[in-house]
Specification:
By secondary structure, the protein is of the alpha/beta class. The chain folds into two domains: about 250 residues, TIM Barrel (Alpha-Beta Barrel), CATH 3.20.20.70; about 70 residues, Arc Repressor Mutant, subunit A. The chain is about 35% helix and about 25% strand. It contains 15 helices and 17 strands. The chain has a nine-stranded mixed β-sheet, with helices on both faces. α6 runs parallel beside α8. The protein starts with 6 loop residues before the first strand and ends with a helix. About 40% of the residues are buried. The model has no long low-confidence stretch (mean pLDDT about 95).
Length: about 375
């Protein structure tokens, strides 16, 4: 009998001090932070999701945004306590909170640790003052460096530093300098990804001048080599970690695990293996609507048909350098991998996929041209 996948929880806190020009996430500025009301609404939202738990414990929790570190430690503690009262935590649960260096305080970080947060994701993006200004970030390079020290002082040594490359007017050496500064802070994990211009952003309406494609490719290659030389192993397209420090929450996403999403605009995924169905559901996006007691938290849901599921699986698992095992594909989808043999053979012939034993994984070229690879599914 097939078992349900591990279960994670995503909690969305949608407010920021200022909207960054590249950001297409569901984030909003506000003069008054409705912390108490939103905390109450999150707990009510969770209550309505409980039937989806199906006797599982929580594998991981990720509190994202927006800027969750705008919330007090007391509010984060109230939220996590409410979750644990309703859903049991696994003994090694990973609980991550996203933090902006411009909102870092020693007392607050210590409070987060006391509340149960055992991993931080610090949104640095760059240590270069010029690039921070062009990205619209509210923090300085000094504050970014201090944030890592503050996390360690609070007892949270498992932290991620978010970095971007391919920034306006950025040279290869400047990108490598950012990586080296991050490495010097000894994070357990570094997320390093290329700036992309997304619709519905300020950059989309007024695009900055980015490095040419050849320069971007050189930056990518040099950065990957530099990270590897310092024992940060790439395990996903934009994720690098010290040994054993991969993000368990994100690995659950990429391994096609299940997750509940609560908060404004949050998404969730639930499996019905026996019927070869996946349920996608999403919440009301606008914070004011989410807080309105006359409106529903859930904005919609959709069952994926069986023929949609392979693409959904591949969109996640092929982000991982190690790809997936045949058993995992069949366990998480209820579909025999052999039904895709023709497509897999074509991708192997084109040099986009490899197979070794029972594992299927993208080549270096496949990772670079992942969208072309996924089009086959």
């Amino acid at each position: 009998m097939l078992e349900l996948p591990p279960l994670s929880l995503y909690i969305h806190i949608p407010w920021c001090i200022r909207k960054c020009p590249y950001c297409d996430f569901n984030s909003h500025t506000t003069e008054t932070l409705p912390e108490q009301d939103y905390t109450k609404a999150l707990i009510e939202d969770l209550e309505q999701e409980l039937p989806l738990v199906q006797n599982r414990s929580l594998h991981s929790i990720f509190i994202g945004g927006g800027t969750p570190s705008l919330f007090s430690a007391a509010a984060i503690a109230e939220i996590l306590n409410a979750v644990e009262k309703r859903i049991p935590f696994s003994t090694d649960i990973e609980i991550t909170l996203e933090a902006n260096p411009g909102t870092v305080e020693q007392e607050k970080f210590s409070g987060y640790a006391a509340a149960g947060v055992n991993r931080l994701s610090i949104g640095v993006q760059s240590f270069n003052a010029q690039h921070l200004q062009s990205l619209g970030r509210i923090h300085s390079n000094t504050e970014a460096i201090k944030a890592a020290a503050t996390a360690k002082s609070a007892g949270i040594t498992n932290f991620n530093i978010d970095l971007m490359h391919g920034l306006p007017q950025q040279s290869q050496q400047q990108a490598l300098d950012d990586i080296q500064q991050a490495i010097d802070l000894a994070p357990a994990h570094i997320s390093w990804y290329q700036l992309t211009i997304e619709p519905n952003t300020a950059f989309y309406n007024a695009p900055p001048t980015l490095p040419p494609d050849d320069s971007l490719a050189d930056i990518q290659a040099a950065g990957e080599q530099h990270l590897q030389q310092h024992r940060y192993q790439q395990y996903e397209i934009s994720a690098y970690s010290q040994p054993g420090k991969q993000s368990q929450h994100n690995i659950n996403y990429w391994s096609f695990g299940d997750y509940i999403g609560i908060g404004a605009g949050a998404h969730g995924k639930q499996s019905d293996i026996a019927n070869q169905q996946i349920l996608r559901r999403w919440k009301t996006r606008a914070p004011n609507d989410f807080l309105n007691p006359k409106k529903h938290f859930k904005a919609g849901e959709r069952l994926l048909a069986a023929d949609e599921i392979p693409l959904e699986f591949m969109m996640n698992s092929l982000r991982l350098n190690q790809g997936f095992q045949t058993q995992l594909f069949e366990q998480r989808t209820g579909i025999a991998l052999a039904t895709l043999n023709q497509k897999l053979a074509s991708l192997i012939k084109r040099g986009l996929l490899q197979q070794a034993g029972d594992r299927t994984y993208p080549t270096a070229t496949g990772r670079r041209f992942l969208n072309s690879l996924l089009e086959e599914f």
